[in-house]
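Lab channel / #folding
Pinned by the channel admin:
"Please post every new chain as: sequence first, then the structure tokens as a reply. Keep commentary short and put observations after the output so the thread stays searchable."

First post following the new format, from NK:
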Amino acid sequence: MRDGGAYRLFLQLTRPAWVRAGRLDRFRLEPGLYIYVGSARRALAARVDRHRRLAERKHGNRHWHVDGLLLHGYSRLVRAETYPDTEECALSRGLAGDACASVPIAGFGATDCRAGCPAHLYRLEPDCGEPL
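Reply from TO:
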């Protein structure tokens, strides 16, 4: 039985933050609400639980770009949504087409993306409402 799929992490930054994103370098993110889109080929719930633990404990190994953001002291995981049997790029394209979402760091979370996503991290504009 396949137990993979995609997920969205909603992260709140309370202050400006410098975040390291693997080989992409360090970037400054402004305060606000961000959505990270990720996936797991299997064990989707375990992947999201790992992200929750990193966000709560602010300690752990960095494996993915989002880990730097989850581990940052100014970030807070607001909520996580799972989408079993869904491709992460489908979720990412939905956000890329949303007028309320912008790409703060080109390529963040999408360095291995083959679908042409601009990134898998989006910043939501204040007072824009709930995203897709």
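NK: The mean pLDDT is 89.
TO: also worth noting, The chain has one domain: 5-124.
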